[in-house]
Specification:
Elements lengths: L29 H6 L13 H21 L10 H18 L4 E3 L8 E3 L7 H14 L8 H13 L5 H6 L2 H13 L8 H10 L1
Antiparallel strand pairs: 1-2
């Protein structure tokens, strides 16, 4: 394995263009460089019927199961890794059995062609399905924090919370989107727990 001019190991599958690696995409953390590739294959289909169907189903199922079991004295948490492992054979099965017939979308939707089965199940579909499941898993905590607050107000304080007040709890997602530039996109911001999932994809 080669090193760059700083003596750092190059990421697996890194492609040098004119001998220079893109510093913006290269993480300064060695574990990340060795686990996460910085290359992309733009020919792989992403927004497929398989991705949407498995992804939405996994998100709904994870949300229901984790919220349902969160009311137990000893909550049962179904993790995102479960969907990550289970969706791989399901995706390959759908790639084998779905028809490859091509359809034409109406002009108001762009008029492009699409198919229920654009080809083999690929890593991009698998990653997006896992992101859907992670949203249903409340990003690692099982049930949504906001629902816990609503439950406490009703169960312990015998008060009703208005729909508008409950809706304001969604502002956290807005803040998460605003902070993405500072806590997600920089190469030096890394989340060690996600490296396990990335390794499993590869």
């Amino acid at each position: 394995m080669g090193t760059d001019d700083r003596g750092l190991a190059e990421p697996v599958g890194a492609v040098k263009e004119e001998g220079i690696l893109d510093d913006e995409e290269t993480s300064p953390i060695e574990e990340v460089r060795l686990t996460v590739p910085t290359t992309d294959d733009p020919s792989l289909p992403v927004w497929t019927f398989r991705m949407w169907s498995i992804g939405l189903l996994s998100c709904a199922l994870m949300s229901f199961l984790n919220q349902f079991f969160s009311y137990r004295t000893e909550p049962l948490i179904v993790t995102q890794i479960t969907v990550q492992v289970a969706s791989l054979p399901v995706g390959h099965f759908m790639a084998r059995v779905l028809p490859r017939t091509r359809f034409r979308a109406p002009e108001m939707l762009g008029g492009g062609e699409w198919s229920l089965n654009p080809g083999p199940f690929n890593i991009k579909e698998h990653v997006l399905i896992s992101i859907f499941a992670n949203a249903g898993f409340a990003f690692g905590v099982g049930s949504a924090y906001a629902v816990g607050i609503i439950n406490i107000i009703r169960a312990f304080y015998q008060r009703q919370i208005s729909f508008f007040t409950a809706w304001l709890l969604v502002l956290g997602y807005g803040w998460a989107g605003l902070m993405r530039k500072y806590v997600v996109e920089p190469a030096h911001m890394w989340w060690p727990s996600t490296l396990v999932q990335v390794s499993l994809f590869r």
